[in-house]
Specification:
Layout lengths: L2 H23 L5 H7 L4 H29 L2 H19 L4 H29 L5 H30 L2 H21 L14 H12 L2 H31 L4 H25 L5 H25 L4 H27 L6 H24 L7 H21 L20
Helix pairs in contact: 1-5, 1-6, 1-7, 2-3, 3-4, 3-5, 3-13, 4-5, 4-7, 5-13, 6-10, 6-12, 9-12, 9-13, 9-14, 10-12, 11-12, 11-14
Membrane topology: Multi-pass membrane protein
Keywords: Cell membrane, Membrane, Transmembrane, Transmembrane helix, Transport
Pfam families: MFS_1 (PF07690)
């Protein structure tokens, strides 16, 4: 594979993967405006974010079998079409309940892009390169939290929150055109797979019985849910507790994304000397230490705006190391049903994120503590799952192969 082809594939797959995060982040600065316009509260508006997570969780399981039976492109096209229509619907929503429902549908469409892009990493690249490719995808994905809230803040201020969803509609159209014209077929449809409930469940059961899969998929999902706690809680924390406006919040969100992006890219350097398993271990321990120190400071009332930003920065750095390695280790055992495996991995991730965001939305009084407590709890639980689950992995996948590590065989 030439460097040009490699770069182009990463760009398209990264755009597909970034569609969901962009849909999550871009409208966050508009929470107060949406609440005012739809005659509700910011906490109720945050349920539209939870609804998005619910849609992605359900959609992951829907698209996994479809991607394995019909190939990657046809289900992807259908999902993108659903996303485009739902995004336009969000732009025209007149009530908070309509917005929540449309966000669920929008998410179901967007997660076709997420599941397909993860499965195509396994299709298009050798297993030994998967951790590196996931890190590169995170670089593309990571641009969205830097750009989306900042742009969303200015767009909402100038044109209103409805315009944010019209922009997302346009993005969906552009990505659909790019995938139709330039994304190669990466997987031959497996027509032997049945879409009846029983065979689908048996296929998922076969995947989930693999100890390496459930250990690292659950570990990565629970650890990553700390990011959802941050995304769900940060609008209230920064705009209600610390009284920043939407534009400032967007710039803070962009700055914090640097930690997540930077660590995910430094991951490729660490993988030259350490295995993916070692990086996950160290990153999770650091995540636990940072989050519990953060929680202690919050409970003691020591948090200022700069201190809160600093703690969040280091916390997101830890997640940037955990996710690509956990994802690569989760998918390593699979070839034939990589679509189902990636769907389950995504469902675990979004399911954990949904639960944590719903819990945070229940706290209507502005406070930093619920968000930070969720981060600390998820970090400790992820570490516990990793320690416990590794006992059942009889044949460990080695992830160090020569000087160009980050590879698996």
């Amino acid at each position: 594979m030439s460097k040009k082809t490699y770069f182009f594939l990463i760009l398209i797959l990264g755009s597909l993967t970034a569609l969901g995060p962009f849909s999550i982040d871009m409208y966050l600065p508009g929470f107060p405006a949406i609440a005012k316009d739809l005659h509700t509260t910011a906490a109720k508006v945050s349920l539209s974010l939870s609804g998005f997570f619910v849609g992605i969780s359900l959609g992951q399981l829907l698209y996994g079998p479809l991607l394995d039976k019909f190939g990657r492109k046809r289900p992807l096209f259908i999902g993108l079409a659903v996303y485009i229509l739902a995004s336009a619907g969000c732009a025209m929503a007149n009530s908070i309940n309509d917005l929540i429902l449309l966000r669920v549908i929008q998410a179901i469409g967007s997660c076709a892009a997420t599941v397909a892009s993860v499965a195509m990493v396994r299709d298009l690249f050798p297993v030994k390169d998967n951790a590196k490719v996931f890190s590169l995808l995170l670089l593309v994905v990571g641009v969205s939290p830097m750009i989306a809230p900042t742009v969303g803040g200015y767009v909402t201020d100038a044109f209103g929150w409805h315009s944010v969803f019209w922009i997302l509609t346009g993005m969906g159209v552009a990505i659909l055109i790019a995938t139709v014209l330039w994304l190669p077929d990466s997987y031959k449809p497996d027509k032997s797979l049945s879409l009846k409930p029983k065979p689908i469940l048996l296929n998922f059961l076969q995947v989930i019985r693999e100890p390496q899969f459930y250990t690292y998929a659950l570990t990565g999902a629970i650890a990553f849910s700390g990011l959802f706690a941050y995304v769900s809680g940060s609008p209230l924390v920064f705009m209600e507790v610390f009284h920043t406006d939407g534009k400032v919040y967007g710039w803070i969100f962009a700055f914090l994304s640097v930690g997540f992006i930077g660590s995910s890219q430094l991951n490729t350097l660490f993988l030259r000397k350490f295995s993916s398993e070692q990086v996950v271990n160290i990153a999770l321990i650091c995540q636990v230490l940072v989050s519990f120190t953060f929680l202690a400071a919050a409970l003691a009332g020591f948090l200022t705006l700069p201190v809160t930003i600093a703690f969040l920065f280091f916390f997101l750095c830890c997640i940037g190391y955990t996710y690509p390695n956990a994802a690569a280790l989760s998918l390593a055992p699979f070839t034939r049903n990589a679509g189902s495996a990636s769907a389950l991995m995504g469902a675990f991730q979004m399911g954990a994120g949904t639960l944590i965001s719903i819990v945070i939305s229940l706290f209507e009084e502005p406070s930093v503590v619920p968000m930070v407590a969720a981060m600390a709890g998820s970090s400790l639980l992820a570490l516990s799952v990793l320690v416990f689950g590794r006992r059942f992995i009889k044949e460990k996948v080695e992830v160090q192969q020569g000087a160009d590590a980050g590879v698996m065989h």
